[in-house]
Amino acid sequence: MKELLKQNIRKHIVLSENETEEFCDLFEQKSIQKKGFLLREGEVCKFEGFVTKGLFRVYHIDQNGFEQILYFAVENWWITDIDSFCNETPSQLYIEALEDSEVLVITKINKEFSYANLPKIEKLFRVMTQKTHVALQRRMIDNLSKTAESRYIEFREKYPHIIQRLSNIQIAAYLGITNVFLSNIRKKIALKK
């Protein structure tokens, strides 16, 4: 389980074997069954997680009762409600397993402990936070400037390993469109071939 986490860390920073072990020992493994929740709206998020198996969706339900999916998280991805985690406020998000899933979680106390005792870990989270900001900025620009069809095509090309694991309804909620509109987009693309 922790081998995938170690590989992820190595992509961002260099730690000694002892530092890597000490950091990884701060994580607790959780198993979440399909349709189970890692976090629900109203709860305070007390973890940052690293997905080792399965698939999660992070979403919000708007005032009209529609799901708005912020992102999906699969193996080797990090997952949290960063606002709730950092500010210790009730979450506005749900984190739900779409498959039987496993995640390694670190608490805020253990994360702060790692910052104090393993200074390189602060760099790890800074680098990951920067990458997350870049991805969110690009997603916002795409949502404001691209058509739903082009967003769907890009999503399909960028995440072929994820799209096969999702329903049309979930993809539509991520793209911010209806399932019917997504079906029309797929038909239009199929006719072009």
Automatic annotation (TrEMBL):
Residues 30-108 form the Cyclic nucleotide-binding domain. This is Crp/Fnr family transcriptional regulator. SUPFAM superfamilies: cAMP-binding domain-like. It holds the Pfam family cNMP_binding. It comes from the Bacteria. Transmembrane segments: none annotated. Coiled coil: none annotated.
